[in-house]
Write a structure and sequence with these properties.
- With about 375 residues, the chain is an alpha+beta fold.
- The chain has a 6-stranded mixed beta sheet with strand order 1-2-6-3-7-18, sandwiched between helices. It has a 4-stranded antiparallel beta sheet with strand order 12-14-10-15, with helices on one face.
- β4 and β5 form a beta hairpin.
- The two termini are about 20 Å apart.
- Bound molecules: zinc ion.
- Zinc ion binds next to loops.
Length: about 375
Amino acid sequence: MSTDPVTIARDLLRCRSVTPAEGGALGYLENVLKGAGFTVHRLTFSEPSEDMVENLYARIGTAKPNLVFAGHTDVVPPGDEKAWTRPPFAGEVDGPELFGRGAVDMKGGIACALAAVLDHLSAHGGKPKGSISFLITGDEEGIAVNGTPKLLQWAAAQGEKFDHCILGEPSNVENLGDTIKIGRRGSLNGHLIVSGRQGHVAYPERAENPIRGLVTLVSALQAEPLDDGSTHFPPSHLEFTSIDVGNKTVNLIPGEARARFNIRFNDKHTLDSLKKLVAQRAEKAAGGKIKFAFEWEPSNAPVFVTEPGPFTELVAKAVEDVTGRKPHLSTSGGTSDARFITAFCPVVEFGLVGRTMHQVDERVPIADLRALTTIYHKIIDRYFA
Ligand SMILES: [Zn+2]
């Protein structure tokens, strides 16, 4: 008899694990995994002035290769619970769908991975040919400091080695099987500060209005694309998100003007080369006449890509065999914990359909839970074949 992912998903949805609360979700996984013969570690990480976060690492087998399923059991808050047509933490099945916060992002994905692993183990005498691990954090939807990055460091310090990782985030856009994510653009936030000389509007010749300089630099930085894209990525993009002078006085020329921007960048850049490029362009536009400076916020979102190869092909083939769809290998969307995992092993993201994630009435078709379990099961079987 095969394991029912719907029951597991339901049990997980009933845990109130609103980030960063554990809510019983990791305890549930610990029990099930221990029952299947996994060695389970529960790790709590903290940082002064931040919430403590619980995490879990579980492994069965000691041999290579080690196939890792990664994910998070924390969820975003439900918002106004009365706006939901089914309670967000009841795990109610209605007709063809299972409702609840985290149904697709990503307790549903974890349930499918767990069901697939249990089925694989019971078909192979309870042991994998190599190793199978679960790397589960309770801090993905929050600031992601005491979650996956520290869990990975801890595992590395224990001598744990990962060979390949599947992160079960809701990667699909419209239908199960349409998208596997193999990378992500990097993200960098910056501030552009132009300084002038404060003065009276009636005597502009005695002042130097920084707004003029700011407008010149903002328009120059938007005028030219940063690059024309690369094999797996669209062109990098710089977008201004705010312009601030904060001047409440009608007859005063301000002394300083600021603008804030974000850059989503591809693998033609590193953080350093990108900062240099932006500064050079501003320099050129300023022509020595505008006094400006950049302030850069620290970024923990570098660009990365898992180059297509045997592993991505194995995953894509399993997806196609079950869904009939040839998945698109994408690098689009916001960041995920894959940006941390990529430093340790090749990682791909494949999970449920993201359409209702973070929304009221988040829900997942039961058929998708069963199909994703079958996909994961095929991946595991072929990986260890
Ligand atoms: Zn997620």
